[in-house]
What does this fold into?
Amino acid sequence: MSKIKSLEDLMKIKEETLKNVKMRESGKRGKIIVAMGTCGIAAGAKETLNAIVEALNEFNIDDITVVQSGCMGLCEVEPTVKVEIDGEIPVTYGHVTPENAKRIVKQHIVAGNPVGDLIVKQGEE
Amino acid sequence: MIDLKEIKEIVQETKKEALEEQDILIYTLHKILDKIENNYIPDEVAKIVSEELKIPLSKVYEVLTFYTMFSTKPRGKYIIRVCTSLPCHVVNGREIIQAIKEELKIDFGQTTNDGLFTLEESSCLGLCGVSPVIMINQDYFGDLTPEKVKEILRKIKGGEKI
Amino acid sequence: MPLTTNTILICAGGACISSGEESVKEALERKIKEYNLQDAIKIVETGCMGACSVGPLMVIYPEGVYYQKLTPKAAEKIVEEHLLKGRIVEDYLYKGDKGKIVPQPQKEIPFFSRQVKIATRNLGIIDPLNIEEYIAKDGYFALYKVLIEMSPEEVINIIKESGLRGRGGAGFPTGLKWEFARKSPGNEKYMICNADEGDPGAFMDRSILEGDPHTIIEAMTIAGYAIGASKGYVYVRAEYPIAIERLTEALKQAHEYGFLGENIFDSGFSFDIEIRIGAGAFVCGEETALINSIEGKRGQPRVKPPYPAQKGLWGKPTNINNVETLACVPPIIINGPQWFRQWGTEKSPGTKVFALAGKIKNTGLVEVPMGITLRELIYEIGGGSPTGKKIKAVQTGGPSGGVIPEEYFDTPVDFESLTQLGAIIGSGGMIVLDEDDCMVDVAKFFLEFTVEESCGKCTPCREGTKKMYEILEKITQGEGTEEDIVLLENLGNVIKDSSLCGLGQTAPNPVLSTLRYYKDEYLAHVRDKKCPAKKCRDLISYVIDSTKCVGCTACARVCPVSCISGEVKKPHEIDQDACIKCGSCFEVCRFGAISKVTPALD
It folds into this structure.
């Protein structure tokens, strides 16, 4: 660690750390829920989860929480991901491979358009 | 057996650490205490400290007898410090003291025959949220009941790590 | 890179550690590893979250769900249910009043929502051993502002304008203290942080040192710059090993990042801090005694004047501030004095941390605006009595303070109001007493403490407190007279006026204040040989109500002196001559047949 000598150095550490700290605080625009039941994990949900987090980082999005949940009961279309944006109807996607995860982030989270061909359900149960 | 050479080394080590010359007495005594099995500072060790730090032996003795954490007499391997402050007192601290005395058959200031425990009174340990509280060497134990404290003591007697 | 989806903040304050935090953390880690979730879930050990009575505690983010009273087994269940399957485990959720489950208490429960956190702003939120998390919460920004943009005089002015007063007991204005040290002639000066927290029932300093050590380092460096010191000491009592450990680590980090050492921020200012550890002497919390102790001597107070600001450590000008006071400094520098003044009263601005203990439901640490009433503090935030018994009084300020009866609970909590009532804020310990607590016993208890801790240097304190203790003992044994009460009062006033240091000058307070409000209890002890609270052993007897006793023999079995006799299924009887009044039978009776009576039976 080189010694900190300027306000810029301080700001840099602050922002970097805040990015990480923010992840655990509430007060966000919405969340992406990844079903991480045994079935989901077996179908590759862990890779999906990684891909989502990477994509969010890539687009510099820090107001979306990534949450794990248990099985959503849609085991046949695992891995499943639910996107909940405040004030909008929740959307559940199926067969979310890492590539599809990136599309969801790009189209739905960034541009605000749900990814039609991956939707398995809209709204709550 | 206390290795006097080692004591000498500790003193020389702490001399290098501190920036001021005179203020290291208490600090050094703490360091030495960590190394001595029976939790006390014997005469021969006090002499070494006095010589090495060039502080009169009387001054070393003065400090050793003023602070409750130091002792010039051998104490147990485990020092039990029982908080006897009001917050612990009002939530049945008295029963905890009774339980310890019963279990170990010693009073405050005494050491068990096997040299394992010394029982001491302590001022507030600052853990009033989970009172009654005791401290055994460096570990805290809170929310105690007579049963709990006896169990802890039995575990230590049985050689269990706590 | 960061894949973290859940962060677990687990309280690693001393209280939670003593109730098993480490084994809970180990269970969490083991289970998380079992499910291969270690990359996705981060565990952070934080400082004290304040709700010590329900520890060990943890919060799971992003949801912000509080779990309480954890065990290793509970931790395993939470990993499997909450983290893996997203289902909240209700059994261990934080419960508010009336046992109602509250998943997000920081927004809904008065214990959390009524608090304003300044000194304890980072407790339970950041990882105390991670300097970058401190920086993320604006840490060391105040230091930068001070060293680069401000003159020492400007710094002192901001602190003066904020009205910040010492949180260690006396309430002396901090800015003035700094100014005295600044103006005192001399090239070499010292900055000391008094972390020898000794008042029974107060533990905010320990919590701050454990939970946010960097704030003390930053504030001390700021104070060092303001007064013109290049060397600082933190004097920590040896009873706080965890605080010492974390502070040591934080000092190392601050050095690595260049916040301590030579030429900080290229400002030309250099500062260093060392830790000095106490060795178990209450009087060392008195500032001149503390200085003697740092110098390696017996911790006996010196005659004042000269004050430490003129002649302190090694005879050089020295400034001493308490931990909580220092923790307020960085936010005041960043936000300005008016920001701080938006809370509290004109003469006591800002917030104060209180440690709630004794007969109160929510024991723990709370930080509230000054001027809040005792009633709000004890009932709304503290949750009132845990047993439903009537709360009788609150003892504030430890052995230097006094009791405040329930009738005065609408008094605002500030330095002046409590002093008027004969109590003090002191370091912020609040011990709640209920109808089972005898005021003479409480006074005796504190006197016993003072007798033990008096350093012996001056006669009024050494001999006087001992005499007072003897009189109190006589009274609680039922052998006191009304003259004794008069003598007690006179003696108290003499000791108050003639002792050398704060310890002796305030030692009679617990007696004088209980005499002020509860003289009838003293009189009951001496006139009628009665202890109204049924606490003083010599004035009570245990009796069995033969109409309620079913003859279960539980009491007879537990009696250590076998003084209870009776046949199975027939009412039992206590032999009063043999009874040692240990209370074991009273505790064990499930039929409410055993009661205490006062005065004692012959």
About this structure: The mean pLDDT of chain C is 90. The radius of gyration of chain C is 26 Å. Chain C touches chain A through 37 residues (CB under 8 Å).
